[in-house]
Write a structure and sequence with these properties.
7-stranded parallel sheet, TIM Barrel, 15 helices, alpha/beta, 3 domains, globular, 496 residues
C-alpha cells in the first residue's frame, strides 16, 4: 500500500506521539489523517530523531521521496531520493544495503553517518552529514517531576543513570540522538571504599555521615544541594599510609569487575564485557575514563586541607599525587592493552567554581601536568588523539595547562555567570582546543523564545568547527519537557 511517514518537526512537537521505537514495524504505528491538502494516504508518525533508521526501511524494493512539508512518501518509481536530515540527498531504490549520501551539508561525498562517526568527525574538523543533538544526563529531581507530570511512567524512571537503558528511553522520547558521556573505565578510586555510616545525629535534623571516600558530610532528609564536608578521615601521613595507600594499589580486578553496558544488560568486563566491546558494533562513541588526577584527592581530603598541605607537608602532597596518578596510568594501560577500540580518552576533575580554579594553576601545572602528559601520550600510542575532560566552573586558567599536556576537548563548558564559550579559547589557543557543551541549560525552564535565542547564540560557535553544543551539565529540576523537545527539534532544523 502507499503510505506516508511523518517526521515530527517543531510545528508538530506538542502533539508528537512517541512511537519511534516501533518505526521498523510499520503496521504497529499509529495512523493519522493526511496533513497536506489533497493528501489522503494514511500517515504514520515517527520522532525526527529516528530519521537515521529510515535507511533500514529503504532496503525494501521501494522508494521514499521527500516532499516539501517534511514528509517521506513511498513512490512507485524504481529509483528516487530521500532527503537526509542535514539537507543531503540519499540514493535509494532497489539496493541491498543502506543508501549512500551523495551530497551532505558540507558538500562532500559520504555515506550516512552514525552518531559515533559524527562526533568524531566534528571534533577532528572533518566533514559530517549533520550535527548530533547530545546531552549530559538529567538530575534525579527532574525525573521525579516528569513522572508526576506524566511525561514518564514510574517504570521508565527506575535506574536512570549515565547511558543506562532507562536513560536511553528518555533520550529517545525527548528527541536527543545520544548522551555524549558514554564512558567505561577501570576503577581508579580507593578500593575498597569506606563504610557508609551515620557518625552523629544532630538536634536540628542534620546527620554527620561518613561517605565512601572517608569524608564526613552533613545530610538532612529532603535537602537537595551538594552536602557540606565537615571532616575527613584523611588528615595526615598517618591516615594516608594506614587507610588510603593500601586502597590505591592496582590489581586486574579494577578492570575486570567494572560493568559494561551490553545488549543483554550490564556485564563485567572480565566476564563477557570485553568480548562484547571487541565486536565494535556500537553506533555511539565510547569514552575511556582514565580517572581523576587531582579531583579525587580533593574528595579524599577536602579542598581546604589539600590546599594547606602544600605548606604543611609538601612531600606528602607529592606522594599522594604520584600514587593516585600512577594508579590512573596503570588502569588506563590495562584498558588499552585489552584490544578494545576506544574512541575518546576522558578525565574527570571538577576543581573550579564561578570565580576560577580551586587549585593554584602554577601548582597544578608543575605537579599534576606531567601526569596528564604521561597518560595522554600513552593513549596516543594506541591511536586515541581526542582526550576530553569533565570539569565544572570557570576553567579559563586551567585550559592552557590541559592543552599543553594532551587534553584537547573541554566538557561540559558551564556557561554560568562567567559566560564560558569556545570562542575566546579558540581565539587564544587555536584549533587545538575543542569543546562539547556550552549550551545554557537554564533556558529549559523558560519558553520557546528563550530556546530560540540560545540556539541563535550557538550558531557562530558551531561555525568555528570542533565544537558540539550540549546542555552545560545535567538538565536541572526546572526544565520543561516540551522545551527540551522543542530544543531537539530546533537544533536539527537549524544545524541539520
Amino acid at each position: 500500500m502507499r503510505f506516508i511517514l511523518e517526521i515530527a518537526t517543531p510545528a508538530w512537537s506538542v502533539a508528537r506521539n512517541d512511537v519511534a521505537r516501533q518505526v521498523l514495524t510499520i503496521p504497529e504505528l499509529l495512523p493519522r489523517e493526511g496533513c497536506g491538502e489533497g493528501d489522503t494516504a494514511p500517515h504514520y508518525r515517527i520522532s525526527y530523531s529516528e530519521v537515521a533508521r529510515i535507511p533500514v526501511l529503504s532496503r525494501k524494493p521501494s522508494v521514499y521521496i521527500a516532499s516539501g512539508c517534511g514528509m517521506l512518501k513511498q513512490a512507485e518509481q524504481p529509483a528516487g531520493s530521500l532527503m537526509e536530515p542535514g539537507g543531503g540527498v540519499l540514493q535509494t531504490g532497489r539496493q541491498s544495503g543502506p543508501p549512500t549520501l551523495l551530497c551532505s551539508r558540507q558538500g562532500v561525498r559520504n555515506r550516512v553517518m552514525t552518531n559515533r562517526e559524527r562526533i568524531l568527525a566534528i571534533l577532528n574538523y572533518e566533514s559530517y552529514d549533520r550535527m548530533p543533538v547530545v546531552h549530559f544526563g538529567f538530575l534525579p529531581k527532574l525525573i521525579e517531576r516528569w513522572v508526576s507530570e506524566r511525561h514518564l511512567t514510574k517504570e521508565e524512571a527506575v535506574d536512570v543513570w549515565d547511558c543506562s537503558a532507562a536513560e536511553d528511553v528518555i533520550t529517545e522520547r525527548l528527541g536527543f540522538d545520544c548522551a555524549y558521556h558514554n564512558r567505561f573505565g577501570p576503577n581508579a578510586r580507593i578500593s575498597p571504599t569506606f563504610e557508609h555510616k551515620v557518625v552523629e545525629d544532630l538536634p536540628d535534623g542534620f546527620r554527620k555521615v561518613q561517605n565512601a571516600y572517608g569524608a564526613i558530610i552533613l545530610q538532612k532528609d529532603g535537602a537537595g544541594s551538594i552536602p557540606a564536608e565537615v571532616d575527613h578521615v584523611l588528615k595526615s601521613r598517618k591516615e594516608w599510609e594506614q587507610e588510603f595507600l593500601p586502597r590505591l594499589q592496582y590489581s586486574d580486578d579494577r578492570l575486570n569487575n567494572e560493568l559494561v553496558k551490553c545488549s543483554t544488560g550490564m556485564v563485567p568486563f572480565g566476564a563477557g564485557g570485553r568480548e562484547y566491546l571487541l565486536r565494535d558494533e556500537r553506533d555511539i562513541q565510547l569514552l575511556l575514563h582514565c580517572g581523576s588526577l587531582y579531583g579525587a584527592l580533593r574528595d579524599y581530603m577536602g579542598i581546604e586541607n589539600l590546599c594547606y598541605l602544600l605548606a604543611d607537608d609538601e612531600p606528602l602532597l607529592d606522594e599522594m599525587i604520584e600514587v593516585n596518578a600512577d594508579l590512573c596510568y596503570r588502569c588506563a594501560l590495562a584498558a588499552l592493552e585489552s584490544g578494545v577500540k576506544w574512541d575518546i580518552g576522558h578525565f574527570w576533575e571538577d576543581i573550579a567554581f564561578k570565580n576560577g580554579p580551586l587549585v593554584n594553576p602554577s601548582l597544578f601545572r608543575r605537579k599534576v601536568g606531567p601526569h596528564y602528559k604521561r597518560i595522554t601520550d600513552l593513549m596516543r600510542k594506541y591511536g586515541i588523539d581526542l582526550v576530553s575532560l569533565d570539569c565544572d566552573g570557570c576553567i579559563d586558567a586551567l585550559v592552557p595547562i590541559w592543552l599543553d599536556n594532551g587534553v584537547n576537548v573541554m566538557f561540559p563548558m558551564e556557561v554560568g555567570t562567567w559566560g564560558a564559550s569556545i570562542k575566546p579559547w579558540r581565539e587564544k589557543y587555536g584549533r587545538e582546543v575543542r569543546g562539547v557543551g556550552g549550551m545554557a541549560k537554564r533556558i529549559f525552564g523558560y519558553d520557546y523564545a528563550a530556546v530560540d535565542a540560545e540556539i541563535e547564540r550557538l550558531k557562530p560557535l558551531v561555525e568555528l568547527g570542533g565544537y558540539i553544543p550540549c546542555p552545560d551539565h545535567r538538565i536541572s529540576d526546572d526544565a520543561k519537557w516540551e522545551n527540551v523537545q522543542y530544543y531537539c527539534d530546533r537544533m536539527r532544523q537549524v544545524f541539520g
